[in-house]
Design brief:
Helices cover 37% and strands 24% of the residues. 29% of the residues are buried. The radius of gyration is 21 Å and the shape is globular. The longest helix has 30 residues. The two termini are 35 Å apart. With 259 residues, the protein is an alpha+beta fold.
Length: 259
């Protein structure tokens, strides 16, 4: 696990200093994501003590995974629930507690965009060799990095919006959870306008996991939130991971167990 910089400028490693229940493993990262970007995404869910992000190469780039350290385990749980299907630069994040991380996730963390370019180069060279042609120049790595940075910049507004909506949904989460577990979920990033047709579609999908007692929507801080109450906590537990990240009315929804 790499070193992090804490408030005050002191560089240290948080490995072993924070309980594993307070850590979030973040896999499937694009190589050009940095600590500040990751902290910005995860900060809405609680106090982030630091980010461990192993790096390699020159200029340094992450190895495709990192660890986010929270001050408490509930914040870590909320972040996993709220961001587990967040897509950054075309890659869907893989989130879990470190104890459940499989080694293959770290080893398999690759940049699909770079790999696609390199594979394209390889195929072109093979074809040109077969035809006796002079190989064309390879793609400039610096231009490739600049392109990746441009893509990240273009997506920053979307990331900030998703983080804000996740934070808004998190304000509806009762902490600690009710005895026996939650039965009501909150849904954010749902649509600019909610009508009975959309609510009916959500109810239909949610009903696949258990009886839906009630569904309604509210406007909070200018954003639409949908609430759905199941018959029992087991139904909500089954529905949340399946509905979270689903595509509804042109958006990938955020679903959290609320109360």
């Amino acid at each position: 696990v790499g070193a992090v910089t804490l408030p005050g400028g002191a560089a240290t490693s948080l490995a072993g200093a924070v309980s594993s229940d307070c850590k979030v493993y973040v896999g499937s990262l694009d190589y050009f994501i940095d600590e500040d970007t990751l902290k910005q995404i995860f900060a809405p869910f609680g106090e982030v003590l630091g980010v461990d992000m192993p790096k390699e190469g020159y200029p340094p780039k992450n190895k495709g995974f990192a660890f986010v350290h929270y001050a408490d385990s509930q914040s870590a749980d909320n972040a996993i629930a709220g961001l587990s299907r967040l897509e950054i630069m075309g890659r869907t994040l893989k989130l879990s507690k470190p104890a459940r991380v499989e080694a293959k996730d770290a080893l398999a963390a690759v940049n699909p965009a770079v790999n696609a370019v390199l594979e394209q180069q390889r195929q072109q060279l093979l074809q040109q060799q077969a035809l006796g042609q002079k190989p064309i120049a390879a793609v400039d790595p610096q231009k490739l990095r600049e392109h990746q940075q441009l893509v990240l910049t273009q997506q920053s507004a979307t990331l900030q919006k998703q983080a804000q909506l996740a934070q808004l949904a998190a304000t509806c989460v009762k902490n600690p959870a009710p005895p026996g577990g939650c039965t009501t979920a909150v849904i954010a990033n749902i649509a600019d306008k909610v009508d009975e047709h959309l609510l009916s579609d959500i109810r239909t999908e949610a009903s696949k996991f258990g009886k839906v007692e009630k569904i309604w929507h509210e406007v909070k801080e200018g954003q639409i939130l949908v609430f759905i109450t199941f018959e029992n906590p087991a139904a909500l537990d089954a529905a949340q991971p399946k509905l979270h990240g689903r595509y509804f009315d042109g958006k990938y929804i955020i679903v959290m167990a609320a109360f």
